[in-house]
């Protein structure tokens, strides 16, 4: 993926994460205009990267009749017609705004009527890469038509290596660890949760992955109520930018998060400072990761107290 290396000449990247309100666009043009408006807001705040949430493509189901949009499988079939326009739209928006755009996720037909939850990352030159969601929630398994991805990736984004972990994937340490061992220092988490418990689980996962790997995490969320959609009906959570909890970094890991009606959380991530923090770290979870594997603790054994 090509990029503008000069963006990170000073070791920083300004990132915006969306608390994206779900609407009911009348047609693709209305959806496209909304994306342009949201990205313009992020760009006006100086963002060099903008992150949109999981299931973004399902907002397009609102463009169809009630019978189609109210039934998940029918809406998945229908939204496939927009895939080419989706890619063209976000490539154009990234080029015109000279920014990196993580376009949430698009549920893409694999050619045999099953769908992968795919997150596209667009560069300022309009090129893109993608990461499929690897772990399925109970809701996704229950659909019978959504399948998991089978490949784990790391990208070069604006001079720093980044990786995508879609929502539930952020709750699993080992795939993210593999991405960070491949050099990722920014973990991008497009998410969509409908309960407080779900929002908490993803947030705890994001905090834990930042702690374990000494990386930044950028989490985008959906917001609002969409009674017309079986997947986007209720949306809960706050968008956030997260850091490891250590000297010179936020004690609670929270760099910034949305509150109330805020649409974007925006902050400058200092990757040079992140790397420098290793030298005076209170703890080094990232470097001490391998110490978990010594033979005597490979398996736990049951013991009973002696009389």
Q: What is the string of SSEs from the N terminus onward?
A: EHEHHHEEEEHEEEHEHEEEEEHH
What percent strand?
A: 15-25%
Number of strands: 15
Looking at CATH, the homologous superfamily is Carbon-nitrogen hydrolase
- CATH level-two architecture: 4-Layer Sandwich
Spatial shape = globular
Main sheet record: 15 strands, mixed
Mean pLDDT: 94
Distance linking N and C termini: 65 Å
The helix fraction, in percent, is 25-40%
Keywords: Hydrolase
InterPro entries: C-N_Hydrolase (IPR003010), C-N_Hydrolase_sf (IPR036526)
Protein name: Carbon-nitrogen hydrolase family protein
Organism: Lysobacter panacisoli
Task: Walk me through what this model shows.
It is a single chain. The protein is α/β, with parallel strands linked by helices and 307 residues long. Helices cover 28% and strands 24% of the residues. It has one domain (5-297): Carbon-nitrogen hydrolase (Nitrilase/N-carbamoyl-D-aminoacid amidohydrolase, 4-Layer Sandwich). The protein has a 15-stranded mixed sheet that branches. Strand 4 and strand 5 form a beta hairpin. Residues 13-276 form the CN hydrolase domain.
In short:
This is Carbon-nitrogen hydrolase family protein. The protein has 9 helices and 15 strands.
Features:
28% helix, 15 strands, Nitrilase/N-carbamoyl-D-aminoacid amidohydrolase, alpha/beta, 307 residues, single chain
């Amino acid at each position: 993926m090509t990029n503008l290396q000069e963006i990170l000449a000073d070791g920083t990247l300004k990132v915006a994460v969306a608390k994206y309100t779900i609407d009911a666009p009348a047609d693709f043009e209305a959806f496209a205009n909304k994306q342009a408006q949201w990205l313009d807001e992020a760009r006006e705040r100086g963002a060099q990267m903008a992150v949109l949430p999981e299931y973004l493509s399902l907002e397009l189901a609102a463009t169809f009749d009630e019978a189609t949009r109210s039934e998940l499988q029918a809406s998945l079939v229908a939204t496939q017609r927009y895939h080419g326009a989706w890619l063209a739209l976000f490539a154009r928006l990234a080029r015109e705004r000279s920014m990196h755009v993580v376009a949430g996720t698009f549920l893409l037909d694999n050619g045999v009527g099953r769908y992968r939850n795919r997150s596209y990352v667009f560069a300022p030159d309009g090129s893109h890469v993608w990461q499929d969601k690897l772990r399925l929630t109970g809701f996704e398994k229950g659909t019978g038509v959504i399948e998991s991805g089978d490949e784990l990736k790391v990208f070069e984004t604006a001079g720093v290596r980044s990786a995508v972990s879609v929502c539930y994937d952020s709750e699993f340490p080992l795939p993210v660890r593999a991405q960070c061992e491949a050099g990722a220092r920014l973990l991008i988490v497009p998410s969509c949760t409908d309960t407080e418990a779900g929002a908490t689980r993803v947030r705890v996962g994001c905090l834990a992955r930042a702690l374990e790997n000494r990386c930044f995490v950028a989490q985008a969320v959906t917001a609002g109520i969409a009674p017309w959609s079986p997947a986007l009906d209720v949306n809960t959570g706050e968008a956030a930018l997260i850091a490891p909890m250590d000297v010179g970094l936020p004690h609670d890991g929270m760099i910034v998060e949305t509150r109330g009606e805020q649409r974007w959380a925006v902050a400058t991530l200092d990757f040079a400072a992140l790397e420098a923090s290793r030298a005076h770290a209170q703890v080094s979870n990232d470097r001490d990761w391998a110490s978990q594997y010594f033979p005597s603790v490979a398996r736990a054994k049951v013991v009973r107290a002696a009389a």
